[in-house]
Design goal:
The chain is α/β, with parallel strands linked by helices. The chain contains twelve helices and four strands; from the N terminus they run ββαβαβαααααααααα. A four-stranded mixed sheet has the order 1-2-3-4, with helices on one face.
């Protein structure tokens, strides 16, 4: 406490208002007296914009400059916007001089070492894996609640999402699947004609589409189409505080928003996979008939000699798992989006990248698993 009459200790209060952290500074700031520290004032909160303003500020010296400098340094590190226009003009001038002197006194080479970069990347990977595992756990618990009380599930929303990710995706899936079959057939024809094995093009196209390309290409299309749409929708809802309103009402966002979308993709992806396989086989049949003069009947009979029910089941299982992965990536990134238009865009991009990465990993795991099972 100051023993001067009419003076108060240095004080500062911070209030989080949306994306702004409003910091009110008052009292007498003296270097010989205790002052509020920026980290204590922040109390672990995060903000994209920081505003400093006087509130009963009586007198100040370098003690106030140190606190303002700490706030500015924190904003530079976190990428937050720093606003001190309301502070006394003299304090802002001295703050600029202090910041300039601090920057010139730093060594030129402040690059992170290799071990530091590896450590930070490892910590970031662990954090992301933890976020994914927590989200999967929330979805699992919500799904168990739906199984116990099916009447509480929003089936109408699920049917709407099934139409959006299923029926509305048929044109692009049809085009991609047909062209993939045509491309594979042309590539196979170049090699098979050299050995007189033209008819084997049916075996190659059939197995490739049913076991791999049908499920993978459909999942890639839906990752860019539906997964990004899910992330953008949920990110926009988060920016508009609609998700906060649901939580205030005691409604789980996972059960209300995520489960209908993930269930819709899990149901429609196997059907779209079968449809994609059929279109890809037809594309290969067209090339075989036009380029290699193989009748459609011969193509179909030869394909049946190599493709059996286990191959079809393999593709369907992959399709269902890939649908869950696309839905999980889109909804997870949407719920993690920042509360801004740029954050929504980054969430949509991150959803596609995350989905593609998980799809590749899952496809490799399925390949090893099915090989071990002899499928």
């Amino acid at each position: 406490m100051s023993d001067r009459p009419g003076t108060l200790d240095a004080r500062a209060t911070a209030e989080l208002q949306g994306e702004w952290l409003d910091v009110a500074i008052g009292g007498a700031w003296q270097i010989t007296e205790p002052r509020p520290a920026w980290n204590e004032l922040l109390a672990g909160r995060r903000a994209s914009r920081v505003r400093l303003r006087p509130d009963g500020l009586e007198q100040w010296d370098s003690s106030l400059l140190l606190m303002m400098f700490e706030a500015r340094q924190w904003c530079q590190i976190t990428g937050a916007y720093f606003d001190a226009d309301a502070m006394p003009e003299r304090s802002r001038v001295l703050l600029g001089q202090l910041a300039t002197a601090h920057e010139t006194s730093l060594p030129l080479d402040r690059a992170e070492t290799f071990l530091t970069s590896v450590g930070l990347a490892s910590l970031d990977t662990v954090k992301k894996a933890d976020d994914i595992s927590r989200f999967v756990g929330d979805c699992t618990l919500s799904m168990m609640q739906v199984l116990r009380s099916p009447a509480k599930f929003r089936w109408r929303d699920c049917l709407h999402e099934m139409q959006q990710c299923g029926a509305m995706a048929l044109p692009i899936v049809s085009l991609i699947a047909f062209l993939v079959g045509v491309t594979l057939a042309y590539t196979a024809a170049i090699v098979l004609r050299q050995f007189g094995g033209d008819i084997w093009i049916a075996d190659l196209i059939g197995l490739s589409m049913v076991r791999e390309m049908g499920a993978v290409m459909t999942a890639v299309v839906l990752a860019g189409r539906t997964g990004a749409a899910y992330a953008a929708t949920l990110g926009n809802m988060k920016a508009n505080e609609e998700i906060d309103a649901l939580e205030t009402l005691g409604i789980s966002p996972v059960q209300f928003l995520v489960l209908p979308r993930m269930l819709a993709l899990a149901v429609m992806m196997p059907l779209l996979t079968l449809y994609s396989c059929a279109l890809g086989i037809i594309g290969g049949m067209v090339v075989a008939m036009g380029l290699l003069a193989i009748p459609p009947a011969a193509y179909w009979i030869e394909m049946q000699t190599i493709v059996d029910l286990s191959d079809v089941v393999t593709g369907v299982i992959k399709g269902g798992a890939f649908g869950l992965i696309v839905g999980l990536a889109g909804c997870l990134r949407g719920l993690q989006a920042e509360r801004s238009a740029a954050g929504v865009g980054r969430a949509a991009t991150s959803a596609v990248v995350t989905a593609l990465l998980l799809l590749i990993i899952a496809d490799a795991i399925f390949a090893m698993l099915f090989n071990a099972l002899g499928w």
